[in-house]
């Protein structure tokens, strides 16, 4: 087919310069394009530098006398610059958006979050000098809200957890911004094959331990992205390790796993911030999970208190969920006469929950009695008394 220039409709292609054969003969890169390209290159370099400095966190090994033959490890994600596991996710989401061309110089960033992801995203937004707005339930802990504002972010609140998605989409459209959407992109923004992701870091750090290949990795689910990364990595590397995901009250994940129905919902929002969702998030992949359990909120918070005392520092509620699930797996192993190692995560610091999970008045107002679970957990890890 002969291509004609609009200004010379009868010219022969034989006499035209090669570049003029294209319908759009504008300059390849304008000054603005070159400036944007330079910003993108600099932004990726900054994010990559943060990854080199902070990606590998400690693997903590406390001693629990009641669990002979079972070694317990905690991957301490609270030591990231923004204090939580979500630091990894936020960096991946930023790189994903920038490399896809969706995040550019001056782009307003919007996220739907229960707090910790928004804290980390506010940090990176400030790092790159980009405006950031977090859409969160009004019940989000004051400590997280203060952290977001400290990093220069703004907060918009909704009454119900299920309302954060539509409000984030609305604000992004209104501001001409970009919705980071952790619940959709968490499982694809991270390279699950390795590249120093959390799974690769865990298994590398376990080399040289008595039971180098964990029998189980135990993980709670917020977006589902971390469990997806770990489950995929285990399969990709051909490992014998199994993955147990622990769900909480007021969450749709466990029912979706049990029934295979991704349309299940939960009308009440989770009380354990950062995990449990009112709907099944796109990043939640049941097929990579080997076993799933659901635990009461009182068990999560009691486990959080017990572990904080044993580590001599406070951990958050989702870490308590992880710890209780790990104790349940350990009890199953002991009943079967099995030995091995178990790995879970310290997701964030308990300092973010001083006014909630560590406040006796808050616990009383929410009808949460920790003592029965606390006694059972302590008896198990100290004396091996299986009451879980």
From TrEMBL:
Broadest EC class assigned to this enzyme: lyase
Keyword Lyase: yes
InterPro entries in UniProt: Cds1, Cys_Synth/Cystath_Beta-Synth, TrpB-like_PALP, TrpB-like_PALP_sf
Catalyzed chemical reaction(s): L-cysteine + H2O = hydrogen sulfide + pyruvate + NH4(+) + H(+)
EC number from the UniProt entry: 4.4.1.1
N6-(pyridoxal phosphate)lysine modified-residue sites: 86
Presence of the UniProt keyword Endoplasmic reticulum in the record: no
Tryptophan synthase beta chain-like PALP domain span: 62-348
Obligatory cofactor(s): pyridoxal 5'-phosphate
GO BP annotations, alphabetical order: L-cysteine catabolic process to pyruvate
Described purpose of this protein according to its UniProt entry: A cysteine desulfhydrase that generates hydrogen sulfide, H(2)S. The H(2)S produced by this enzyme stimulates respiration in M.tuberculosis, mediated primarily via cytochrome bd with a lesser contribution from cytochrome bc1/aa3. H(2)S modulates the balance between respiration and glycolysis, and also contributes to redox homeostasis. Probably eliminates toxic levels of Cys (which can induce oxidative stress).
UniProt-listed PANTHER family: CYSTATHIONINE BETA-SYNTHASE (PTHR10314)
The name this protein goes by in its record: L-cysteine desulfhydrase Cds1
Lineage, highest ranks first: Bacteria, Pseudomonadati, Pseudomonadota, Alphaproteobacteria, Hyphomicrobiales
């Amino acid at each position: 087919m002969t291509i004609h220039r609009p200004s010379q409709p009868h010219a022969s292609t034989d006499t035209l310069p090669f570049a003029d054969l294209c319908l759009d003969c504008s300059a390849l890169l304008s000054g603005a394009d070159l400036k944007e390209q330079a910003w993108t290159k600099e932004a990726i370099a900054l994010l990559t530098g943060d990854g080199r400095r902070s990606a590998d966190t400690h693997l903590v090994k406390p001693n629990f006398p009641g669990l002979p033959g079972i070694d317990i490890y905690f991957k301490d994600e609270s030591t990231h610059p923004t204090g939580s596991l979500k630091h990894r996710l936020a960096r991946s989401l930023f790189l994903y958006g920038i490399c896809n061309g969706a995040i550019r110089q001056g782009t307003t960033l919007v996220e739907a979050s229960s707090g910790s992801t928004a804290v980390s995203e506010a940090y990176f937004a400030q790092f790159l000098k980009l405006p950031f707005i977090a859409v969160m339930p009004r019940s989000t802990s004051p400590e997280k809200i203060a952290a977001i504002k400290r990093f220069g972010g703004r907060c918009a609140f909704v009454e119900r957890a299920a309302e954060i998605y539509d409000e984030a989409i609305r604000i992004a459209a209104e501001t001409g911004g970009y919705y980071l959407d952790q619940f959709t992109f968490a499982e694809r923004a991270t390279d699950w094959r390795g590249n120093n992701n959390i799974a690769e870091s865990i298994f590398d750090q376990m080399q040289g331990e008595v039971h180098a290949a964990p029998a189980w990795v135990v993980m709670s689910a917020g977006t589902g992205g971390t469990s997806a990364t770990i489950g995929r990595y285990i399969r990709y590397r051909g490992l014998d390790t199994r993955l147990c995901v622990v769900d909480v009250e007021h969450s749709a994940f466990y029912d979706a796993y049990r029934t295979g129905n991704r349309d299940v919902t939960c009308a009440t929002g989770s009380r354990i911030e950062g995990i449990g969702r009112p709907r099944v998030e796109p990043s939640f992949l049941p097929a990579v999970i080997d076993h799933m359990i659901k635990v009461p909120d009182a068990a999560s918070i009691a486990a959080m208190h017990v572990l904080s005392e044993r580590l001599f520092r406070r951990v958050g509620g989702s870490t308590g969920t992880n710890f209780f699930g790990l104790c349940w797996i350990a009890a199953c192993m002991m009943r079967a006469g099995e030995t091995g190692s178990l790995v879970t995560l310290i997701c964030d610091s308990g300092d973010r929950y001083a006014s909630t999970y560590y406040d006796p008045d808050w616990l009383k107002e929410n009808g949460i009695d920790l003592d029965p679970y606390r006694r059972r957990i302590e008896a198990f890890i100290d004396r091996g008394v299986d009451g879980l």
